[in-house]
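Weekly structure sync, notes
Attendees: PL, DS, HV (note-taker this week)

Item 1: DNA polymerase IV
DS walked through the input record. Source organism listed as Niabella drilacis. Sequence as pasted into the shared doc:
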Amino acid sequence: MDAFYASVEQRDFPEYRDQPIVVGGSPEGRGGVVATASYEARRFGIRSAMSSKTAQRLCPQAIFVFPRFDVYKAVSRQIHQIFHRYTDLIEPLSLDEAYLDVTEDKQGIGYAMEIATAIKQSIKEELGLTASAGVSVNKFVAKIASDMEKPDGLTFIGPSKIEAFMERLPVEKFYGVGKVTAAKMKKMGLHTGADLKNLSEAELIRHFGKPGKFYYQIVRGIDDRPVEPDRETKSISVEDTYQEDLTTKESMLQELETLTEKLADRLSRAGLKGRTVTVKFKFHDFVINTRSHSLLTPFNDSIRIFDTVRIILDKTDLTLKKVRLLGVGLSNFESPGEQNSPAHQANQLRLF
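Item 1 (cont.): predicted structure, written out as tokens:
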């Protein structure tokens, strides 16, 4: 979807149309982060994850809007209902993005570009929103293609054009290449896919570890990852950004306790128990750190989650740190058949 949160706000409130809208943050520019920005705001350089203070400096006339996540989720469900008219092989990535495998082609259209065009048209006519689509033979190339002609774009990269396309692609656009890795690559004189292609698989692995094997394949347009409609949940987490930075462990614990209650509620509704608690810290300089701690037996209750959060916090040096965001998550979930295993039952007996 194109500037999804902001586009929903502009659709629902006529006074926001053609205006620089910033969803998230605060009008005072103090605390908070930009969740998304309308294209009118993006012309001023405002981007997602930017501090609201920076956003306001770039565009003093920007209108800050508090996020309505319940509305965005409802709209996302409507979008997926449209997807399901054409295929049931849908892998959601977020509220506003998904992979679709249209091999199934429920309506017998026969051409992926025509299917993408029909989906885009339905979203526009029924929901009053625009979407951009990328069409190709695998997930990686389709993802890159979907970003090429935003907003309201449609890009096809066929099999014969993939390698040439990948050779021209800047390294920072490659899946799994973050800022640190991109900087390392550029320091080595690797600026594009063509530069990466000049290195052997062994050389890429030596310089970048296991991801080197993936880079070797992807620069040649090889991506065999399937679209996974029933992708297994690996973790569940909650987080919050604060209007004022947290500077004491006491204030952090208070906020973490609130987050823990929300997390326990989500886990209970999902029927999931896990062993590993992770706490996420985003500091005032936007540096992000995570710390984890695992227990032997799975759990999902707020008491044990918060006890584990305390252990993590006690082991984390937060001296002179100003915390802008906190998050709590649970992962390492028990398998479906694990609950009835003798070992699991024995652990539960010892535990209680």
